[in-house]
Amino acid sequence: MDPRHSKDEAQRTLDTYASTWGEDLALRVYTSRLLGADPSLVLHGGGNTSVKSTAVDLLGDRVDVLFIKGSGWDLATIEPRGFPACRLAPLQRACALEAMTDEQMVALLRGQMLDPASPTPSVEALLHAIIPAKFVDHTHADAVLSVIDQPGSAEVVRAIYGDGALFVPYVMPGFALARRVAELVRERLAQGALPSLMILDKHGVFTWGDTAEESYTRMIDAVTRAERYIVERSAIVSHPTVAADPDLRAAIGPVVRGALARASGRPWVCTLRTGLELLAFCARDDLARVSQIGCATPDHVIRTKARPLVIDCHDVTDTARFRATVEQAIARYVDEYHEYFRRSCAARGVVRDELDPFPRVLLFPGAGALCVGGSRAEAEIVADVYAHTVSVIEAAEALGGYQPVPELDLFDMEYWSLEQAKLKLGAGQRGPLDRRIALITGAASGIGHATAAAFLAAGAHVVLADRDEESLEKAAAELGGRHRGRCMKVACDVRSEASVHRAFAQSAAHFGGVDIVVSNAGRAFSGSLHTSEGHEALCASLELNLLGHQNVARAAARVLLAQGAGGAILFNASKSAFNQGPDFGPYGVAKAALVSLMRQYAVDLGPQGIRANAVNADRIRTALFGAGLLEARARARNVSVDDYFRDNLLRRETTAADVAQSFLYLATAEATTGCVVTVDGGNAAAFPR
Fold it and tell me: In what order do the strands lie in the sheet with 204-209?
């Protein structure tokens, strides 16, 4: 591992922060970001760093403090305000106590904060406080975990580092670990010298120094030495791999999402990882053994659970059989989790409220790892953590055997209130479409764009589908920038069944499936039906405004039926379905047929819990009225353009946002199907009948 410290970059960080926050904290931010930027060192909020310095308290007195990473902050992007300042002396004195509960430790840490509004200090703040060095770094480096997650880890550490490392047999993080380290530090100091490196068995690595650069460089050196040991001592076995079949990727997500939704009573969002290392891991002959041993470090259990679910038989050509296989596997996993919980509570003599028993990682030999969460972001975190777990397992097995902490220690961590608090920090408020996935056609502009914005604001993950790739790119950049990780784009021409199929396959591969489909893409066609031009316009309109919706609805039905968890197919119809306008037959006839199409889907799919509804909008300022059509329609009504938009019972212009809110309502209306909602400001001639 090459060090990435740059004096120029360090100076730029000083220039940015030192005048406000001081040089110590500025340099602490810089090297913390260096550590956080390397996923082989820390992942998604893992690890922690600190610096001992001085700060002015609320009374104006300068006091010695520990700046320690706050809970909820990620080292890769941490800012100075992510390091709460705690009075140092009380933290150091606390380590001399015989015992302290988790609640007492958190109260102590918060009670010693100079600014009560700061984030809660890391649960390892006491440990950082008693290490007699200015800068302290802690990571869960893959290479170090690989050499300590095996039998005889103490001897391995001595072989790599000699007397240059303080080895700490596994102790659960928190007060007990801080107190044990304090004892070992006193012992080593009494012997003459304290190393600048500490290995926490089955957990991670600490380094420290007088400067931020020194502590960082020592961390890189410690990891590099572990990497060299692995290369020199391991006998890596290659496992045959083949690239995952795209059809397999698209088929797995919906079946798993549906099975989990039925079992848990709530939707899930997926990501499927198909990297070569994961595929090779899934191809191991002993996958059923090595995958069930446990987490690379106990911290990971809240993300991935203690072990993944392995599904060997996955013939996706027979959906019913595949679904049964997945359902049975999940049921076994849940039963085993219940037993693990009961067994662990009995062994520890404790009473706990059981967490949800559902897997977060599902391994499919030949396909990869399907990881699930309450959002795409959560699923990605699970996937990242498990990908690095695989790296650790492979290296540890090649060295002689993978042996992380045993089951009871994982239970302690999984049910540790301070660890669970990390998940709650990122939960945020939930919207009515939280954990749902929506695909919207014609999403690059107009009603589709407004509906996508409304769905994202309501918490949904949204697939933007449109044939105008330039506009689609702009819409995805705009909406995705505001809702990072919950928005993706797919090029799609609804007139092409193959194009629509690809769009749904991409959605299934990316998010795991779909719950709501808004079939919105369309175009206005005009002309008198008895003329040649009108007949040609009718044919074109039927292809887009009827058969295009049929292509979308069929593809949606395939995914929704595979999931078996209900869902909604929503159509953008038109007031013209009930109230035709002069020379507007090509459009009106297709839209009238579309309402009939919607009703048929409501009848056919209702027994499977799939709802079909439509919105009848009228006179919305969108690209639908381009190429002079707006002016022509106004002339046909003998009104001005502005009056044309306000020519309704409410005398107000109806907007794309109004239509979007109707789609949002229908997406959440669990007891409504076969319904037409009018959004036109009121038009008596177009009242549904």
Answer: 85-87, 62-68, 48-56, 135-139, 204-209, 197-200, 166-168
Within 442-485, strands assigned E span 461-466
Cα separation values, 349 from 149, 340, 346, Å:
27, 14, 5
What burial class does residue 163 get, using C-beta atoms within 10 Å of its C-beta: 0-12 exposed, 13-18 middle, 19+ buried?
exposed
Answer whether 326's CB lies under 8 Å from 334's CB.
no
Torsions phi, psi for 187 (to 5 deg): -60, -45
Q: Which residue, chain included where needed, has tokens 């995805």? A: 476
Whether residue 367 contacts residue 272, with contact meaning beta carbons closer than 8 Å, is answered with yes
Instruction: Please confirm, yes or no, whether 665 is among the known catalytic residues.
Output: no
Q: Please tell me the distance from the alpha carbon of residue 498 to that of residue 443, in angstroms, as a whole number.
A: 19
For 522-576, write each residue's pLDDT tens digit: 998 989 999 999 999 999 999 999 999 999 999 999 999 999 999 999 999 988 8
- Own/partner long-range contacts of 306-312 (Cβ < 8 Å, ≥24 apart): 306/340, 306/407, 306/410, 306/411, 306/414, 308/359, 308/360, 308/361, 308/362, 308/363, 308/369, 308/386, 309/333, 309/359, 309/361, 309/362, 309/363, 310/362, 310/363, 310/365, 311/362, 311/363, 311/364, 312/365
Radius of gyration over alpha carbons of the chain, in Å? 30
User: In a 3-state reduction of DSSP, which class is residue 463?
Assistant: strand
Q: Are 545 and 538 in contact (CB under 8 A)?
A: no
Contact, 601 vs 569, CB < 8 A?
Answer: yes
pLDDT at position 647 over 60:
yes
CB-based contacts of 664: which residues, under 8 Å, 6+ apart? 432, 433, 451, 454, 455, 458
Give me the catalytic one of 161, 333, 587, 644.
587
Q: pLDDT at position 484, please?
A: 83
Written in H, E and C, the secondary structure of 573-599 is CCHHHCCCCCCEHHHHHHHHHHHHHHH
Collapse the DSSP code of 523 into the 3-class scheme (helix H, G, I; strand E, B; otherwise coil) and give the result.
Answer: coil
Structure tokens at 521: 């893409």
